[in-house]
Write a sequence for this structure.
């Protein structure tokens, strides 16, 4: 989570890769990418392809986060077009062994409420509460203003709260 | 943290655990090199054009652009040409060449308005220009131009008294091989829009005596015979080739297809159009791609979405192709003439802050900001597809508004977007 933010100054690509691969994969997964590992690898490959891509590790981290967000949306869009419906972000009960990690109704209800939020709100909340990024870091990653981040976060949280109240 | 925030953080932590991966550093490095190699290769392809890849700006149909400066500019200034600066000229793609004729040279001063009658062809392959022979047509503004089996047809347009109102009925065919012009019989209407399918040219406009009355006619460009046809109920704001004939799409999204017998059949309306206040639900930009989708419609404002939605019509059904952020909101056709164009599977359109693009096959999307690029000066110019090279912007005013504020440009920009 926070390891994406705290980057060693003299980091090389290999170190950067090892530091971020898993968290980027998980970010892609939480954002609904159909192949999170591939998304993470593509983001890191693009960073590798950039000249001076690691000169500023903070910027590099923001860049790969941004790329993962964009690619995850792209995969979602692709699925949406080809399957004519968006993939579920939250698995249904018993849908597969990999989903057994969601082991409580509590988590399931929260994630269900998150899944139906508008895309931007979902991204902001995931970056905020899973990656623990600051508003400015989220703004940099998503290419929006810090004010928009605040708005999306508060609206998203309010919507989740409403949904959870209705459920209970 | 509130209770909701804590519950959300806990749920995300729990869910994240199920996503694991096998780190493949070597594979990633190889992939990165491939991306870089592709960029380098592309940048060395053209002797004159610097073809650059902006693969790192890939984003989805709903995305906002990636960090600025992450890719080289896709805008490349082309060689200076023989034509003076102008706006609203007739431009059409001839493959990797672009035909340019007519237009208006002094947009800011109606009293001194000049309508040049010269033209030229720009060749992207050699980044060079060649003048074309003198046209038998008087100068005009915004004349439709289409490529037919009989040659390049320029017809209709405005005499310049009111640049936004077509009042001309005459036209001529240009033969790019022989560099000759042939006049055609006058149209039975004042032509403001036309599309071609083979030898047939479908022309939309108004009855000249009363410019408010819509009119429609079909020309066989091989024989020069005009046939009047009924006006579609949908309206004539947009004509688009479709299945060997044309469809007409009205500003509020109604759609009619022209049958071989010359009558119009109603098709499903463009989704979302006409359901909001008119200004937010009007249909504006159109492009076509016969090998991938039949018709694409780009909403001007967004049909209430906040950005742009692109729809495709295939086999009589509309499907949403992509949704794009407000940054990619398609620009007004009043400013840009042709706000969208397609080449291969690449759709591009003028957005609020730059050129938005989207690939129909891989669903990659992005935005190339024009600010600070050579394209920024010529932003309000139409996009013309150039096979194998991207899109050409040429001409247009230097200011923000057509047609009043600034001197017209004679410069051009070739846009090469490589997803």
């Amino acid at each position: 989570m926070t390891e994406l933010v705290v980057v060693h100054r003299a980091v090389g690509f290999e170190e950067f890769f090892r530091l971020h691969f898993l968290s980027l994969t998980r970010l892609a997964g939480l954002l609904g990418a159909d192949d999170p590992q591939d998304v993470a690898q593509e983001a890191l490959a693009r960073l590798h392809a950039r000249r001076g891509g690691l000169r500023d590790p903070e910027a590099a981290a923001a860049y790969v986060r941004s790329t993962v967000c964009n690619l995850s949306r792209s995969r979602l869009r692709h699925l949406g077009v080809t399957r004519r419906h968006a993939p579920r972000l939250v698995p249904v009960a018993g849908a597969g062994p990999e989903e057994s990690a969601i082991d409580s109704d509590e988590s399931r209800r929260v994630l269900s409420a998150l899944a139906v939020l508008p895309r931007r709100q979902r991204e902001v909340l995931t970056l905020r509460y899973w990656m623990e990024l600051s508003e400015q870091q989220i703004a940099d990653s998503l290419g929006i203003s810090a004010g928009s981040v605040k708005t999306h976060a508060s609206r998203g949280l309010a919507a989740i709260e409403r949904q959870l109240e209705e459920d209970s | 943290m509130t209770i909701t925030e804590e519950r959300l953080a806990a749920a995300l932590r729990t869910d994240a655990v199920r996503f694991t991966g096998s780190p493949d550093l070597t594979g990633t490095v190889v992939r990165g090199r491939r991306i870089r190699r592709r960029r380098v290769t592309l940048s060395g392809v053209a002797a004159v054009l610097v073809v650059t890849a902006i693969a790192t700006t890939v984003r989805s149909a709903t995305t906002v652009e990636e960090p600025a400066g992450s890719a080289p500019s896709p805008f490349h200034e082309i060689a200076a040409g023989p034509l003076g600066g102008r706006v609203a000229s007739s431009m059409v793609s001839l493959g990797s060449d672009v035909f340019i004729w007519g237009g208006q040279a002094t947009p800011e001063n109606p009293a001194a308005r000049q309508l040049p009658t010269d033209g030229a062809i720009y060749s992207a392959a050699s980044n060079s220009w060649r003048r074309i022979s003198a046209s038998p047509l008087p100068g005009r503004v915004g004349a439709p131009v289409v490529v037919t089996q009989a040659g390049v047809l320029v017809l209709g347009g405005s005499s310049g008294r009111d640049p936004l109102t077509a009042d001309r009925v005459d036209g001529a065919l240009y033969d790019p091989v022989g560099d000759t012009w042939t006049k055609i019989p006058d149209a039975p209407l004042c032509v403001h829009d036309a599309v071609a399918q083979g030898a047939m040219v479908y022309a939309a406009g108004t009855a000249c005596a009363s410019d408010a009355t819509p009119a429609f006619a079909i020309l066989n460009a091989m024989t020069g015979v005009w046939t009047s046809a009924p006006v579609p109920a949908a309206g004539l704001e947009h004509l688009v080739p479709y299945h060997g004939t044309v469809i007409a799409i009205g500003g509020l999204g109604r759609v009619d297809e022209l049958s071989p017998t010359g009558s119009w059949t109603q098709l499903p309306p463009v989704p979302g159009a006409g359901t909001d206040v008119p200004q937010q639900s009007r249909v504006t930009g159109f492009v076509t791609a016969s090998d991938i989708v039949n018709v694409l419609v780009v909403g001007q404002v967004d049909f209430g979405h906040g950005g742009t939605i692109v729809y495709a019509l295939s086999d009589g059904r509309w499907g949403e192709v992509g949704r794009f952020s407000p940054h990619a909101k398609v620009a007004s056709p009043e400013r840009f003439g042709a706000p969208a164009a397609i080449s291969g599977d690449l759709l591009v359109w003028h957005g609020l802050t730059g050129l938005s693009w989207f690939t129909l096959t891989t669903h990659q999307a992005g935005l190339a900001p024009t600010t600070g690029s050579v394209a920024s000066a010529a932003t309000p110019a139409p996009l013309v597809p150039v096979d194998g090279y991207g899109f050409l912007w040429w001409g247009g005013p230097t200011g923000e508004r057509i047609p009043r504020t600034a001197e017209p440009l004679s410069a051009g920009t070739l846009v090469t977007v490589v997803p």
Summary: The helical segments of chain B are 3-16, 25-45, 278-281, 333-336. Chain B touches chain A through 52 residues (CB under 8 Å).
